[in-house]
Amino acid sequence: MQHKVIDTEDVVIRFAGDSGDGMQLTGSLFADTSAIFGNGLSTFPDYPAEIRAPHGTVSGVSGFQVHIGSDNVTTPGDFCDLLVAMNPAALKANAKWCKPTAMILVDDDAFDEAGMKKAGFRTENPFEELKVEDRTLIVAPITSLTLESLKDSGLDQKAMLKCKNMFTLGMACFIYSRPLEYIFSYLERKFAKKHPEVIAPNRKVLSDGFNYAANIQAIPNTYKIEPTPKKKGTYRNITGNQATAWGLLAASEKSGLPLFCGSYPITPATGILEELAIHKSLGAKTVQAEDEIAGICTAIGAAYAGSLAVTTTSGPGLSLKSEALGLAVMTELPLVVVDVQRAGPSTGIPTKTEQTDLNQALYGRNGECPVPVVAAHSPAHCFDAAFEAARIAVEHMTPVMLLSEGFLGNGSEPWLIPSMSDYPEIKPPFAETLPEDGKFKPFERDPQTLVRKWAVPGMKGFEHRVGGLEKNHNGVLSSDPANHELMVRERYEKVLRIADSIPALALDGPAQGELLVVGWGGTYGHILSAVNEVRKSGKEVAFAHFDYIFPVPSNTAEVFSGFKRILVCELNSGQFAAYLRNLYPEMEFVQCNKVQGQPFLVKEIVESINRYIQR
Hints:
Distance between the termini: 48 Å
Shape: globular
Helix content: 25-40%
Radius of gyration: 27 Å
Number of helices: 21
């Protein structure tokens, strides 16, 4: 049968299997190939929460979803056009995400009696049991075909079985007209030095998978997703954690400050520390500390010594850092604290995403302890968000909280590599001249910004003390009640005045109307897609997204005033909505919330919007 080639604007592919089946690599290579091809894309790695969950069980399924399109893609997609399920458990866990028109590709060799039992199937036909028998089913003996492909490779059976993901990737590349050249070059780069013997076998099994798909009758159609012309420049596929690290490196360059990161490894933030550790040649210094408290304290010490100081963590680690974060507020030292949020509380579901640390970021310290809060809204935007968090920290002499999410940190999208000439200089407020009395006053402030001067060790005549005890403007310990209240107010007002140096809140849509939809962080793409879908149905709705949370942009009240009600969409029980109600009690806020360790589906937000728009 001749395959029909269909032009389409976008497709969603979900790769799923056991943790050892290489689904993350398979999905990443498919995504990277699509990025090189010029497609827009968004990815969603979905890791199992258990460490070494039993093989073949639903709890051990690892997934990777990639949405590729002709133009910009803002979400990984709600439902998939192709599900690749390497075993019965992967099929059972992911069949619900298949579109009615989807293809389902399974490894027939894995669907034996033992595999079906482990996955919890009750009948002999898993497709009928899951009610997906009407989909296009591609049942291929992938394990057997991989072993046959590599029988003369010299690899042992265990090594050959590790290559079955490449056979599957070859099939997916045929179905969606992906060129194999990028994957070939990846194999050369990955294995040339240490394991050159596996390059040829992986190339062969990848090609054999491609050719097998081209010759079987089970695939009725193949698809082309032609890229539309994009802004000229060099693009790469980048994860949020990589982008965060690179944004911090860029801030180091533009400020002239050496970068120091003191952190303790924690899912899903560890990738930032790992990425920074690679770039010693750019002046980055990293310390893998023995615990979260040591991580932030080494960073505070580095800030005191004149570095651009960073510490990275996730929710439970942020709890441990709270006391030292108060020290950074009291000493008024620049520090960037990156929190890549995950599902909690406590250990929670560490590989799943949420936005449930907002209250902790805003209020989770003792005393009156204001910390600016910035949020990234997409994997690529993590670069700009990290740069901006560092700029605010340095220029305003304050610790800054940068909120990312597991969905952003592990997810990826194409990124136009910027020119550093397009980014502003970051100007540290170093102390330069002594006052007339020759005594440096460490908490004497700029009258406009209330920012104090930064004197680093070794500057003759600028010797001073900072620490956790309250001081007066001269840096002298003081327990005077009036002085304490003055310093508390100045530290808070200093943070509020940051609003003068951040962009205005951008409004997408009419300035007045029945409903304004707002969000923050990684909900951006899903809300934008939902708003556009509602508009296509003929309804009018506006959208505004907050990258700056504390302080909010100075025009926020003006934007809000044009709307009857404001719908706040977030992956928690309503933390940002409560924050906005406190700031703007005269406004009517309604909520769209989800706390499942998963991103929004676009349809969930569409349904919520439609509830609040009169027909």
